[in-house]
Amino acid sequence: MQKSLLLGVEAIAQGAIDAGMSGVYAYPGTPSTEIAEYIQHSKLANERKIHSEWSANEKTAMETALGMSYAGKRTMVCMKHVGLNVAADCFMNAAITGSNGGMIVTIADDPSMHSSQNEQDSRVYAKFAMIPILEPSNQQEAYDMTRFGFELSEAFGTPVMMRITTRLAHSRAGVTPVTDIVAENEMSLPKDKQQFILLPGIARQRYKLLLSNQEKFEAASAESPYNQYTEGSDKSLGVIACGLGYNYLMENYPNGDCPFPVLKVSQYPLPRKMIQKITSECDKVLVLEEGYPVVEEMLKGYLENEAVIGRLDGTLSRDGELTPDMVAVALGFEVEEGMAIPDLVSARPPALCVGCSHHDVYKALNEVIAEYGEGRVFSDIGCYTLGALPPYRAINACVDMGASITMAKGAADAGLIPSVAMIGDSTFTHSGMTGLLDAVNENSPITVIISDNESISMTGGQKSSAKGKLEDICAGLGVHPDHIHVFTSLPKKHEEVKDIIRKECDYQGVSVIIPRRICVQKNVRDQKIKKALKAKAAAKA
Amino acid sequence: MKTDMVIAGVGGQGILSIAAALGSAALDNNLYMKQAETHGMSQRGGDVQSFMRISDKPIYSDLIPKGGADIILSVEPMEALRYLPYLKKGGYVVANSSPFINITDYPDEAELVKTIEALPNYVLIDADEIAKEVTGSTRAFNFVMLGAASPFIDVPFEYLEEGIRKIFGRKGEDVVKMNIDALHAGRKFSQDNK
Ligand SMILES: Cc1ncc(C[n+]2csc(CCOP(=O)(O)OP(=O)(O)O)c2C)c(N)n1
Ligand code: SF4
């Protein structure tokens, strides 16, 4: 079979299609976005009508996937790590309902925070929910494990987490696909009609089942082809290498001649016997894992077992992603770095594109805020967060999706009036709407600016669920029509826009200002697609 | 046969097409390859890099170790220097001399050239200018750069041509020819000036 050149995320997407998945549910978030995008553009997925439209947020995505699993079909839900915070209610409870059709929860963590607010490790969540985790170490495994994951999910009636990190997500390699593409499941209701009703009486039974399943999950890990023990002659050290950690270990032994016993872990719960073997036969055990010291902490325990080394004792850095150099040093190798970076090299942080509509909003906002005094702009997550950097330095907060509106409300409650929220269209429909309802119900003196670029731009210009709906949503939630302003955002309207912002900052109630102009990049992309479609139609005619 | 190369530039400059051509060439010739790239926030005009690894033996790490890169190929002069800690002793820096200035504290250009010229092994090439000369537009400057790096890449040169054919084939023979011409022009410059 011909190899395809695939990113880790694409390998998962192709693996899911080839494993008979019927629907992917997702909200974009780096580094997970391309899974759903790949499926949206896949010929086979389109022929099969595999669901791949974006969801409004991660919680709706997770719940919809659970519904598809209920109906007996294979489904995947994808998000970045912080998305799982949003979807956590469903996630934790889905562990108790269990699944019917195979269900994989694919979470892409971002250690080193390349494009994120934090570097939380989703394995902690899976452990919390007590479900199995698959953590591929390379692109081929990512592809193969997706099918394996659906089988595991159906064998035990549990959702399974597929945990990846940025490096695997966004690294390409050759992947050999299978030749036996699986058909989709037929629709079938759960055998136990009460399985999904988490009333206390039923939930208690389901929870006991989940607890008793732990032993089976562990047995599956012990037999898993993805957990491997390699004997080694030098028992002064043993290495437990989780996920990508395995690659960084082997990078240091290019001829495959690692002298130490190695336990490669790519499926959890941990394979207990293998862990016991490596800890008992080696003097010390080095744990290599991407993200938090999850495994290390389990083995080291509260009593600080000194034989276990890794991120907690400083052998490896406590934060940030693993690198081959870091692992080399931990193994006692010397790293010969190249030349130092010359002093004249300046930092090149990301910035708003030339012509971006958020520029116009910040120019006007900054001038008005100067009249009231600084420290009152609560922003949110999207390209407009770059307003934190020079030249604007316009915002005072960016925490989690939707927090702009609710934080502005809380600050106003505390007496910071006016308080301004600066949020994007997609973030508003993701998690801003409910906060706006809170503000409306108390007629809080806040001014909400929804900088509408008709796109989910930070993650690459996906279709925004908010498109064409914002003013109706705000009116529907009860914002008075006199205090909803919609206009095209253009530099020439600068003074006019300042007047609107000032007027609404003075108003002692909820107002919503919606400057609207399509994202420059999204527009270019849309035009390209249009042109290509036209050319295609012309070629046919 | 093994080449580790850092490809550097600024978000939006299209460094991934270089990696794509090289990757497809490697794969079609049954070589192993891994190529880590930057997606997300930095693509908004920040510094971006791709770690490209090609070998006839299996490759483990997606990242190139510090001091392990045979080549730094940078489509922008300042970005070439950002990755020097990754360069192997004896490795080559192949840099485009046309700066991409989207920050206020961009270094003095003469100083920048001096710093690059002080490196032990470098090729400094005006890829934008050469692309314009040879193909009539700057569009193919990325492949001038790949051509300029090609003498140091441990992969047969024909593979690179094949790679370009493969990734641009759909866009027609003109586009393929433009990029292959750019590739040859870059290679020639490098061979005359290394
Ligand atoms: C819970 C959560 N999900 C997803 C993301 C990833 N993310 C960051 S910004 C963004 C897009 C925001 O779109 P919008 O609000 O329309 O702003 P724009 O980037 O278009 O200006 C997304 C999806 C995140 N940070 N947190
Ligand atoms: S991608 Fe769009 S929204 Fe983001 S900075 Fe560029 S123009 Fe603005």
Automatic annotation (TrEMBL), chain A:
Role summary: Catalyzes the ferredoxin-dependent oxidative decarboxylation of arylpyruvates.
Thiamine pyrophosphate enzyme TPP-binding domain location: 380-513
Domain (Pyruvate flavodoxin/ferredoxin oxidoreductase pyrimidine binding) ranges: 15-187
The name this protein goes by in its record: Indolepyruvate oxidoreductase subunit IorA
UniProt keywords, alphabetically: 4Fe-4S, Electron transport, Iron, Iron-sulfur, Metal-binding, Oxidoreductase, Pyruvate, Transport
Domain of life: Bacteria
One MF term in the entry's GO annotations: 4 iron, 4 sulfur cluster binding
N-terminal signal peptide: none
EC number from the UniProt entry: 1.2.7.8
InterPro entries (UniProt xref): HACL1-like, IorA, Pyrv_Fd/Flavodoxin_OxRdtase_N, THDP-binding, TPP_enzyme_TPP-bd
CDD domains hit by this protein: TPP_IOR_alpha (cd02008), TPP_PYR_PFOR_IOR-alpha_like (cd07034)
PANTHER family recorded: 2-HYDROXYACYL-COA LYASE, INDOLEPYRUVATE FERREDOXIN OXIDOREDUCTASE ALPHA SUBUNIT
Catalytic activity line of the entry: indole-3-pyruvate + 2 oxidized [2Fe-2S]-[ferredoxin] + CoA = (indol-3-yl)acetyl-CoA + 2 reduced [2Fe-2S]-[ferredoxin] + CO2 + H(+)
Reported cofactor(s): [4Fe-4S] cluster
Cofactor info, note text: Binds 2 [4Fe-4S] clusters. In this family the first cluster has a non-standard and varying [4Fe-4S] binding motif CX(2)CX(2)CX(4-5)CP.
Gene Ontology biological-process entries: small molecule metabolic process
From TrEMBL, chain B:
Domain Pyruvate/ketoisovalerate oxidoreductase catalytic: 11-187
GO molecular function: oxidoreductase activity, acting on the aldehyde or oxo group of donors
Keywords: Oxidoreductase, Pyruvate
Name by which UniProt lists this protein: Indolepyruvate oxidoreductase subunit beta
Lineage of source species: Bacteria, Pseudomonadati, Bacteroidota, Bacteroidia, Marinilabiliales
